[in-house]
């Protein structure tokens, strides 16, 4: 087995999941480096991402979990059922900011009844974006900072969803009576 130097530089504190897709030699390599291995193969009712988010939240003392931000890399761009499962994790942990990142885009949940201010890093993200109601229709969504702003707009599956929109500036605001998924494209570097 040949391991690259990068394999030694980025040692995770823990590897947690049902262990159905990790190669034995990779698991052994990190275990020998001191990485904590948490095998939850008995739990087939939650995804690996769900298991990891729950683990991270449990590590944090009894403080406000809404201050926590988790970046999940590689949670998109594979099998559609896995992607939907990972998006479901955003909804199951709606009081924790979780960002799903791929080579092409990022997705995060914007919980209902909040005024969200999104700061756009135009050197690495945009201009394409979208807002998708999740869980239930949106009776009223309003935005600023988009080429096609929404004004008390109703959105639902089977009706209007905001796709292929364009960010116009450095700040986008969003307010909705329903949870929305925010997605924005990532620029190729």
Automatic annotation (TrEMBL):
The enzyme's first-digit EC class, named in words, is transferase
Cellular localization per UniProt: Cytoplasm, Cytosol
Q: Which GO terms describe its cellular component?
A: cytosol
Q: Name one GO molecular function term.
A: thiamine diphosphokinase activity
Its principal location?
cytoplasm
**Gene Ontology process terms (BP):** thiamine diphosphate biosynthetic process; thiamine metabolic process
Q: What does this protein do?
A: Catalyzes the phosphorylation of thiamine to thiamine pyrophosphate (TPP). TPP is an active cofactor for enzymes involved in glycolysis and energy production. Plant leaves require high levels of TPP for photosynthesis and carbohydrate metabolism.
What are its E.C. numbers?
A: 2.7.6.2
Which residues belong to any copy of the Thiamin pyrophosphokinase thiamin-binding domain? 116-180
The alphabetical list of record keywords is:
ATP-binding, Kinase, Nucleotide-binding, Transferase
Can you say what this protein is called?
A: thiamine diphosphokinase
Which InterPro entries does the UniProt record give? Thi_PPkinase (IPR006282), Thiamin_PyroPKinase_B1-bd (IPR007373), TPK_B1-bd_sf (IPR036371), TPK_catalytic (IPR007371), TPK_catalytic_sf (IPR036759)
Q: What organism is the protein native to?
A: Medicago truncatula
């Amino acid at each position: 087995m040949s391991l690259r130097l990068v394999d030694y530089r980025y040692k995770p504190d823990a590897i947690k999941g049902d262990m159905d897709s990790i190669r034995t030699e990779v698991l052994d390599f990190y275990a020998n480096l001191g990485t904590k291995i948490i095998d939850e193969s008995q739990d087939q009712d939650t995804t690996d991402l769900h298991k990891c988010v729950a683990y991270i939240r449990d590590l944090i003392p009894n403080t406000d979990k809404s201050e926590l931000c988790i970046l999940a890399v590689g949670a998109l761009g594979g099998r559609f059922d896995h992607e939907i499962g990972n998006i479901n994790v955003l909804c199951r942990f709606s009081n924790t900011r979780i960002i799903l990142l791929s080579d092409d885009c990022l997705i995060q949940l914007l919980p209902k009844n909040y005024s969200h201010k999104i700061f756009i890093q135009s050197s690495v993200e945009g201009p394409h974006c979208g807002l998708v109601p999740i869980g239930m229709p949106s009776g009223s969504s309003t935005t600023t900072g988009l080429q096609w702003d929404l004004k008390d707009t109703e959105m639902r599956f089977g009706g209007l969803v905001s796709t292929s929109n364009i960010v116009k500036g450095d700040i986008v605001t969003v307010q909705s009576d329903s949870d929305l998924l925010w997605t924005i494209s990532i620029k190729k570097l």
